[in-house]
Each structure stands twice: as structure tokens, then as C-alpha cells.
Amino acid sequence: REIFETARLLRILREEGVDVNLHANADWGAWHWDSDLNLTRIISWTLTLQDGTKEEFVGTHGPYGVSSGAGTPRYRGSWSNSVTFGKATITGTLYHTSGLKLTAPDVTEGCFSTNTVTGENFPASCRMSSFTTFDLTGSYDITPKISLTGSVLNAFDRKAPIDTLNYAALNYNPTYDQAGAVGRFYTVGVRVKL
User: Fold this and answer.
1) Alpha carbons 43 and 75: distance in angstroms, whole number
2) How far apart, in whole angstroms, are the C-alpha atoms of residue 114 and residue 102?
3) Which of 60, 89, 106, 165 could join 84 via S-S bond, C-beta 3.0 to 4.6 A?
């Protein structure tokens, strides 16, 4: 209890954000459509230390030690659309994560990613790009209990943006960009309900 009280006095973490979840559907004769939109915007994620110093983590790789260097993207979202016709369903899902500054306010000031020879920022913008992928999945019901399934994940074969700060992987961010490290990926299967 004493350790907890001491830690509570040393720092205050304040988070503000907005989550939006929207769903729509419609029927057009034999066709049924479902759409789901999920968005998160982190407005502020501020750590205030005992001396009054404030560290803002939104859009950076902080808090570095807590997040494995994965960081705190300002925007994340997905939008899926499914069409069912007869025994078949096809779903397309778009995923997006905003880019990050290659900084970690809880570790150091300025760009935390530099060329070891020249000392210049690497990349020069000191930013990791945003990442957007698209998955396509489908199923066909052979019987009420047996379905064929298939998917093309990361259908456009987007590559993960370079991220030199994340220490859970080498030069990419597996928390948000794993699909870009794997590349386009196909699956085929049979689903059986017991």
C-alpha cells in the first residue's frame, strides 16, 4: 500500500479520447448488406510528474517502456462491409492506423531515431508513416452445418512502414503493422458446426 501511495503521488496520467461505433444494414431482395465502422481518436494522453513536468504521448512512441515502443497513434479504425446472397457471404474490411513521430517523451527529447554515422534524423522527417490494409473474406454454406471459407488478408500486399523505435520487432511495429510484415496471405478452410 505504501509503494502504491508513493507512486500515485509521483505521477498523474490523464487520457481523453473519442470512440465511434456505427452499424448499418439493408435488404435488397435476396441480398443483405451489413456495415460496421469503428473509429478511435485519442485527444490527449498526458503524464504529469511530481515536479509538474508534463509528457504528452499522443502521436509518439511513448510511453516507451509501457508500450514496448509501440506508441500511441492518434487515430485507429476499421470499416467492414458484408454482403450475403443466398448461401454466400463476402466481407471486405479496411484497417487504418495513423503514423507516429519517432520520439519518446518519457525517454529523451527530440528525435529518438538517428543515423549512427551522421547523427541526422532517420528518416529525415522523424516519422513513421500511417498504415492501411484491406482484408477480403468469404464463406459458402454447403449445408446448415458445413461451410467453405476463404480469405485474402492484406489483399493489396501493403508493406509495414519502417519503425526503428519499436523493440518488439526489428524495424517495424508488430502491434499495428504485423499484416505488412507478413504480406498478402491466403487461407482456405472448412468450418463444421457440431
Assistant:
1) 9
2) 9
3) 89
